[in-house]
Every structure is written in structure tokens, then in C-alpha cells.
Amino acid sequence: MQAILAERGVIVAVLISSGVPQRDRDDVAQDILLGAWRSVKRGMYRPDSAQDARKALRAWLYGIAWRKTGHYLGSAWVRRAVLHAQPLGRLREPVGIDLHAQIEAREVLEALEDLPDWQREALLSVDDPESLVAYARRRGMKPGTAASRLRIAREALALRLRGLR
Q1: Cα angle vertex 20, ends 15, 26, to 5°?
Q2: What digits encode the pLDDT tens for the residues 26-63?
Q3: What gap in Å lies between CA 50 and CA 158, rounded to an integer?
Q4: Considering only 96-100, 127-131, 144-148, which range has the smallest mean pLDDT?
Q5: Nearest to residue 156, comparing CAs of 126, 111, 125?
Q6: Average pLDDT of 101-124?
Q7: Using CA atoms, how far apart are residues 112 and 121, in angstroms rounded to an integer?
Q8: Is the pTM of this model over 0.85?
Q9: Lowest mean pLDDT, pick from 11-25, 39-53, 92-106
Q10: How many helices (H) and strands (E) does the chain have?
Q11: Residue pair 109/151 in contact by the 8 Å Cβ criterion
């Protein structure tokens, strides 16, 4: 690892010549160093014994740096990043809480509150990261029963919401 770190100048030169912004050079250089170290550990660094060891290492690091820099510059994050001191000032519409959306959310919560417990539980299970099948198994019911209860609960909620409007 010491030999790789000693050749950091090659990596930085590739980053500068490729146009990597100053703010990202340390991060990309770290990725390159880690990639080189992992490659050494996997046995992918096999220098030619006839060549000078330092020149072989520098050429190998240059190739890794060149490829990693290409991946970095081609990433969507780099191509579309727009840095701005006041990013909210670039928005065309004001940012804030929409009063109409708040009223609708309150109506939905009140309608949910009026539902029986089993319907409310079925509706809220949709927001869980687990699947409907896992939800059904945890409750000791068949997946079809859980799906049916969810459908009934959705219909009941829709009826309550139509009655409010």
C-alpha cells in the first residue's frame, strides 16, 4: 500500500488533466486508491519482471485512474449537478405547505379514524415495507383474505371520502 500511496502524484495528474473539479478530486483519488488496493489483494497486479517496478506501477495506476475518472465524469450526478448559493431562489413557484393539500390530508385522516380497526389496519399495512403475503402470515390469515380485506377497506375509505366532498 505504501508504494501505491507514494505514486499519488500520478493519480492527481490524471484527475487534473481529465477536468475533475477541485472539490471532488480527493474523493475520486480515494476511490482510485481503494480500487488499486483491492486489485492488488485480488492478485490483478502482475507487473512484467523485465520492466522497472516503479514504471510498471505508475503505468498500472495511470490506467486505473483513467478508467475511474471516466466513470466519474460519465456519471449522471456529475453531468447534472448544478451548484448554486441559493438553490431555492431558482424555483419558479414558492415552496411551502399547500393549504389545499393540508385540508385534503386532514379529511383523509378523519375518514381513516371513522373506519373499523381491521379496515384501518389493512389500509395502513400497505405502507409497511413487508409484502401483503407477509402481513397475512403474521396475522394468521390467508393472503387472499388479506387482499380481500384491503379491497373492502379501500372501498369503505373511498365511500367516506366521497361523502365528505
Answers
A1: 70
A2: 989 999 999 889 888 888 888 888 888 888 888 889 99
A3: 78
A4: 96-100
A5: 111
A6: 89
A7: 10
A8: no
A9: 92-106
A10: 9, 0
A11: no
Lowest mean pLDDT among 26-40, 74-88, 107-121: 74-88
Sign of CA dihedral 57, 58, 64, 67: negative
Residue 83: left if φ>0, alpha if ψ -120 to 50, beta else—which one?
A: beta
- What residue type is assigned to position 33 of the chain? L
- Calpha distance 40→44 (Å, rounded): 6
- Closest by CA position to 106, among listed 159, 165, 150: 165
Report the candidate in 58, 57, 35 with the shortest Cα–Cα distance to residue 46: 57
90 three-state secondary structure: helix
Which of 114, 109, 107 has its CA nearest to residue 156? 114
Left if phi > 0, otherwise alpha if psi is -120 to 50, otherwise beta: which for 43? Answer: left
d(CA 87, CA 25): 23
Q: Among all chains, which residue has been given the C-alpha cell 380481500?
A: 148
pLDDT digits (tens, 9 = 90+) for 140-163: 999 999 999 999 999 999 998 888
